[in-house]
Amino acid sequence: MPKNKPPYRLELREQLIALVKAGRSPEELSPDYGQTAQTIRNWIAADVAEDDPAHLGRAEREELARLRRENKILREERETL
């Protein structure tokens, strides 16, 4: 049975994301840092998703829809006053 690896340090993850954004490929970084290229690609995808409002989680989408409905009602109430 494979041994579980300890969690990755946040600093390492951020460093690898910065290196990929600077132009290095995950395949190029993989042997030097001991991470698989797929792991690095997953980290990049997660980082992009955090920055992109279109990639909200279910709870965030529901909250956004609720807030938009509430905002619409408040605008309508303000206009009628």
From TrEMBL:
Top-level lineage group: Bacteria
> Do you know which Gene3D superfamilies this protein is assigned to?
Homeodomain-like
Could you tell me which InterPro entries the record lists for this protein?
Homeodomain-like_sf (IPR009057)
Protein name per its UniProtKB record? Mobile element protein
